[in-house]
Inverse folding.
């Protein structure tokens, strides 16, 4: 019986993810007119004042949805799916999920610098919670079914079913539950097959052909990983400082979120790449080698835009912006190493290894980093340097201390409770 529920959870999760994507694409189509394209492409065609204004309006709308929707959430269950799976009873509030998803849609569609995948995974987790609520089952099975929803949403959003299973085990549960692996795998594979059947499934990123590196290149990738592992705590500290700074402002939530949108929009006035989660810019970095000064500028501005958007209270994840930070950091490190020894590292290889190293360091999840980067890019010739970089970066991050991404329930990449995002950890 439970395998059928896991498969049904996979189908439901994929359909919920696709519904969110279709709504987002419809809004993008309206914004783009007849031009089409992603958020960065749309932003580049707009006038500077228009791409600066859009995140402000989106933040105001998103904050209003959360504030007005809060009146309907009195007595509602938790909205954090990490909490529901780790220590809760597997019950998620449908009202909270829908309100937060609508708020996330307003932020993402208007160019807010935050991940869209967080809301997608949260919607899929809600599907698993509804199935668990409608059928009588034990507490461990209810939690497991919500975990299947998380895996299904991850697989559908990232086109990565294997890393979806590892994400649940290594990040959500932080342990390996052999009894749950078949159900998780079934949910993730069913979600992937559903998306593939409806729209086709392919790696999200298309790097140039990369050959297996030699010993000298491996040494360069290890140096790159050590550097990114050392700076990864700064990324998490910046995100936390952003939440604390906005939380101290004597302003209502819509005004705070509009201010966060103003920071992202002000940067987008000069650099359209500030719009969105950074996916298109990562794809650009994989295939090109822009000047390191431009890469550094985009990286610093993107970090500021993400810290402002997330810290102001926007519902969404920072996972995909984190991949952007790793890609830009890898591109920078690769170019600097090539200054010391010309031709030491190929540009696309440094970007790919940088993404894996930064993900492994911030999430303390080296297995997730390795498998996910292989699924996202299909660059299996880079398996050895990616694995070495992920292990080294995660080790350096642990030695430096500090918390990991998603360590606490407040760090869930999808639905967070308004009012808890900027709560000071004790």
């Amino acid at each position: 019986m439970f395998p059928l529920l896991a498969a049904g959870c996979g189908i439901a999760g994929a359909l919920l993810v696709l519904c969110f994507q279709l709504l987002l694409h419809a809004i993008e189509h309206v914004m783009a007119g007849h031009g089409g394209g992603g958020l960065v492409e749309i932003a580049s065609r707009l006038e500077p004042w228009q791409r600066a204004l859009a995140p402000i309006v989106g933040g105001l709308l998103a904050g209003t949805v959360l504030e007005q929707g809060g009146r309907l959430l009195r007595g509602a269950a938790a909205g954090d799916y990490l909490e529901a799976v780790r220590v809760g009873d597997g019950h998620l509030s449908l009202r909270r999920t829908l309100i937060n998803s609508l708020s996330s849609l307003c932020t993402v569609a208007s160019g807010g610098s935050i991940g869209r995948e967080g809301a997608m995974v949260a919607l899929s987790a809600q599907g698993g919670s509804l199935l668990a609520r409608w059928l009588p089952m034990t507490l461990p099975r209810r939690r497991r079914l919500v975990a299947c929803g998380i895996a299904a949403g991850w697989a559908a959003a990232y086109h990565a079913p294997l890393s979806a299973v590892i994400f649940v085990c290594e990040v959500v549960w932080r342990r390996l539950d052999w009894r749950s692996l078949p159900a998780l795998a079934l949910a993730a594979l069913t979600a992937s097959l559903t998306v593939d059947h409806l729209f086709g499934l392919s790696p999200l990123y298309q790097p140039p052909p990369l050959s297996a590196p030699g010993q000298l290149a491996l040494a360069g990738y290890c140096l790159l990983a050590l550097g990114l592992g050392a700076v990864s705590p700064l990324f998490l500290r910046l995100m936390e400082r952003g939440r604390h700074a906005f939380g101290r402002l004597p302003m209502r939530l819509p005004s705070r979120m509009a201010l966060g949108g103003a920071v992202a929009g002000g940067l987008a006035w000069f650099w359209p790449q500030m719009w969105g989660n950074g996916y298109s810019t990562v794809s650009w970095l994989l295939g090109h080698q822009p000047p390191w000064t431009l890469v550094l500028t985009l990286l610093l501005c993107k970090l500021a835009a993400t810290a402002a958007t997330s810290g102001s209270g926007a519902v969404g994840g920072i996972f995909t912006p984190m991949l952007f930070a790793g890609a830009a950091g890898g591109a920078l490190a690769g170019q600097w190493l090539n200054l010391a020894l010309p031709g030491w590292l190929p540009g696309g290889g440094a970007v790919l290894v940088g993404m894996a190293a930064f993900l492994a360091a911030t999430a303390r999840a080296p297995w997730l980093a390795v498998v996910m980067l292989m699924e996202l890019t299909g660059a299996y010739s880079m398996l050895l340097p990616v694995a070495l970089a992920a292990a080294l970066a995660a080790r350096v991050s642990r030695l430096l201390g500090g918390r990991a991404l998603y360590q606490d329930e407040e760090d869930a990449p999808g639905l967070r409770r308004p009012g808890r995002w900027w709560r000071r950890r004790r």
In short: The chain has a mean pLDDT of 87. DSSP finds 17 helices and no strands in the chain.
